[in-house]
Amino acid sequence: MNLELQINGETARVEAGQHDTLLTVLRDQLQLQAAKRGCNQGVCGVCTVQVDGWPARACLSLAHGCAGAQVRTLEGLHHTPAMQALQRAFTEAGAFQCGFCTPGMLVAAEALLAREPAPDAAAVKAALSGNLCRCTGYLKIVEAVQAAAAALRQGASA
Amino acid sequence: MSSFIQAVGASIPQLDSDEKVTGRAQYIADLWRPGMLHAAIVQSPHAHARIRGYDLQAALALPGVRAIVTGDDLDAAHRMGAFIKDEPAFAKGKVRYVGEIVAAVAADTEAIARAAARLVRVDYEVLPAALDPELALQPGAPWVHDDAASYVKVFDAGTQGNVCSRTTLSEGDVAAAWAQCDVVVERRYQTQAQAHLSLEPCGALAEVDAQGRITLWSANQSVFRVQANVCESLGLPMTRLRCQTPRVGAGFGNKMEAHVQPVLVRLAMKARRTVRLILSREEDFETVRARHPFVIRMKTGAKRDGTLLAREVELVLDGGAYGDDSPGVLGYALLMNVGPYNIPNVHAHGQVAYTNKMRFGAFRGFGVPQVTFASEQQIDEIALQLGLDPIELRRRNLKTGNAPWFCGQQVASNGLTQCLAMVEHASGWQAARAARAQRAQGDKRIGYGVATSAHIGGLLASGAIVRMLEDGSVLLNTGAVDIGQGSNTVLTQICAEALKIAPEQVAIASPDTDGSPYNWGTTASRVTYVAGRSVVQAAAEVEKKIKQHASEMLECAVDDLELRAGGRVGVKGVPGRELPFAAVSGRAHWAAGGPIIGSHSWVFDQKTVDPKRAVATGLPFSQIGIFSFTALVVEVEVDILTGKVRVPRAWSAVDVGRAINPQLVTGQIEGAFVQGLGFALTEEMVWDGGKLANPTLMDYKIPTFAELPEVLKAYIVESHEPTGPFGAKSVGEIGMNAVAAAIANGVADAVGVRAERLPMSGERILQALLQPAGAAA
Amino acid sequence: MALTGYHRPATVDEAVALLAADAEAKPIAGGATLVAMLNARVIEPPALVSLAGIAELQGLSAAAGGGVRIGAFTRHRDTAASPLLVGTLAVVRDAAGQIANATVRNMGTIGGSIAFADPGLDYPPALVAAGAEVEIAGPDGRRRVPAAGFFIDWYTTALQPGEIVIAVHLPPADALGTGLYVKHARVAGDYATASVAICRRADCAVSVAVGGCGPAPLASAEANALLSAGTGDDIIARAGALLQALADPLDDVRGSADYRRALIPRLLQRALRQAEAAPEARA
Fold first, then answer.
1. What is the pTM of this model?
2. Between B773 and B340, whose confidence is greater?
3. Subunit contact B707:C188, Cβ cutoff 8 A
4. In this structure, are B590 and B625 located in the same domain?
5. Fewer beta carbons within 10 angstroms: which end of chain C, N or C?
6. Residue B431 pLDDT > 60, yes or no?
7. Chain C residue with the nearest C-alpha to that of B282
8. Could B693 and C253 be called an inter-chain contact, meaning their C-beta atoms sit closer than 8 Å?
9. CA B46 to chain centre
10. CATH number at residue A67
11. Partners of residue A104 on adjacent β-strands
């Protein structure tokens, strides 16, 4: 193993060629398959993970370039209040159909809610602008993120 | 025992929600097997060429390469095709489009497989290519298929030369009708190839067992079509192949017929190992299929009072290299070209041309978005010329009540009037149009457009098996693939409602050709209606058997029994005399009668053409489906500096008969609308000679969050279809049909430009704006 | 001597030395462009020299003389949010905020972006309009090149082999002026079909540059002079014509060359009217 990465709060030892991307390592070596491969060009967003707290493209991140960074995938975010509110809200709002874009959406939305507790529709659209969806037409996703934000605020003030 | 909540009509979350929001859903690219090999494809660099030979030496010499298949591993006698058996498993003897699969390599890793694929040498003799569909139909054009007329066909296709199929539908006497028209509109329109762009690329995984029987997993819309296509193209008996389904990342038609399954199975058979093949995004763009480009010549005539009298349409479809679903798309587009209006004299005819491009096939709407773009604009042009409000003109001609469809099929439920009223009201149509000049700001112009459409749900066969398990719960098996639209959830709701149990008491089996009843596929907006009807019938059989047992156990007549909410059967009027399903099932399993199974199987059987009304030639289907209806109003904003068109607000109403799950229904309407936005405004596959110039997401742009209208309202109308499961019809495709047409009408309303081409890009609109008034885009 | 592997120099000098050691080695900044090219097998460099760990390349700072220094490794997200880019310098902030989408802006850097020099990019016209200078380090030392001279041709800059961008230097802002970037694209997040970057000082002096309409941003001193002297439609038309004459656009899926040319005076008009209407301008 020639590389140590910090993935979901744990040290992961992997074998990575210099051209291997974080996406390849996550999926093929660490069995973290929530992040998907949709285009391998950084456009579609289904590979979105968090690097040092910011949404990033796993398909455009070289594995070696991630040494020293804190990488979080959907699998490593289940415990956050924001993610739990989002998962509940997405389910209730019908904010996914085939579900292929959903992990990337949730990861990007979680990062948004961690920074912005009351995003309006425009802010949600801007934050998720890098995530494509072909099934839902986006409307229910925007509604779900705002519903999750509202639920979080209520929970916080309770 | 769980309490029963009414299942039909409830917006319950999708059954697989948990796995999707936790990232645990397993799509084809997530499936692993120990010792699995990885495959990569070799693609043709030529649009048309004879294959003279292969040199696999360098590729085979690469360490880690386990097997390679080429056309030499195929028998020329075996071909597949939904309507015309013109397609080999992959290229044999000839390549017919740039990107066509020519060979495939199985290796220890994907990187090795791809490296080896690059080392495969193919000796080609380049041939002249036919790239334009209208030119391909001219004498002297190079023939894509050396002897297309000799292929097996399932209908009277009229295949010859580069004519893949031809169809004519007529009613009334169009030639005589023109003379009675006071206004006539005639134009030529052109629509583009649109890529499905499911976010999940195509892929498959094939396992060969010790007996040589193959289990094939793939991203698919029909395990049965996969089975048929693989077995036909490889000459395998269907008992040799079992097809199963992981979670599917959408399809929209791309995954309905074969993609990589045939080549992968051939490769797995040769390697005698499990092999997985996942296409890259570029390969998916170039190799699989896309929406048919249409050339449409359309003419419509009306009387001064707004009565539509005559319609003539001629279609030329670019079918690409293989027939695929093309004959169906042509026939269906001709059938639907009139729209939901009473036009007594119609002559509709068309051809599909073979060309040296990728095959064009099923894509949401199946030809209707294309013809509707033309038809609904012609209706508007007539309204304009007659000085009539576009909605008012439509009302005067609208199909209502039980008025039959073009060619005579009976219509039992029709909610179109309500749909139109709904969007007219919600948009504030008249006031909005009157105020549009004031709403314009700076360089933006506002316009409003309306369009209506219809779509069938039905076609071919489905079945259902309902089994009562020992504990009284139920297992439902329909073979219908849930590609994300929620059919597992909807069919579960139908089953639960029929047996008066909670949806949690029903498990739904994954589609498997070994165990599932035949379901033609998740396409043609058919699963809720066709499979749903089977579910209701199969559940009715189960109810009968439950009551038979219960009558013996409770010593009463069968007619005295009723099903009660929560999984019980009891004597009517006597609350205390009842049995839980578990007791009944226990008796069936251990004492008498045998485990309770209900099943049903049927083929949609309502005839499309009434030969007393219409003449049809070369129609590839004789029974197609029942009609859902839609009306759509859009507010359009045109930037007159750049020509760019935007849709700030849209109102879409769909008559779905009955919404089994309203949230899933509005999800379809909204998703289809945005996909329609892409078709209308920004998406276009562009060819550079024979090569696709934009097979990447950098260059081919689908709508993003930013393109979502500020206001997008989906309205459900329920007209209660008597033949549908709990009154339901369909919704999967119809939300797309009218979008480009409504936007085109809105653009004309805003800036007076009439769109004759799609997409209505900023460039095309600006070009028209810079011409003298009345120019078309 | 051939280099292989992934290298993480701590200083500019170390990075330059590594690149000098092997002409095939490539510097990598955010990776947004380079890794996409790797994935597509457009390039296959045997060695990569990461610029991520070099402190000197990080961040935006106020310069001694009143301007702003943007380190080459500054992410678009940070440039788009910088409170230092006010007044006329807001053109750079505005351009940064319209690059691709939010997630890519977390990854891409200004140095990586301008070194790639795709003519559809957003920084080039903004930097030319703002009168920026690009600071370069290489085996022969450091130098500065005005932005207008940095972008030379399709994917070609003034960078010589072995050189890297280390910072972009912006002149002092006119805090009472306006800077904005008008981008016309097919959909949000696409490369520009055509774009106009404009700086308009409080005294009405105007500097514009056009993107996406040729191998390098279009700028004309004559056009700037015209626009600085007056703002009527006829003046805009004349200035637009001057810029059109310099245009050498491509036909591609984003638009034809004719469309791009037609857009130049129209986007110029939009940019100028927006700049005139900006709150700072009216104050």
1. 0.97
2. B340
3. yes
4. no
5. N
6. yes
7. C40
8. yes
9. 29
10. 3.10.20.30
11. none
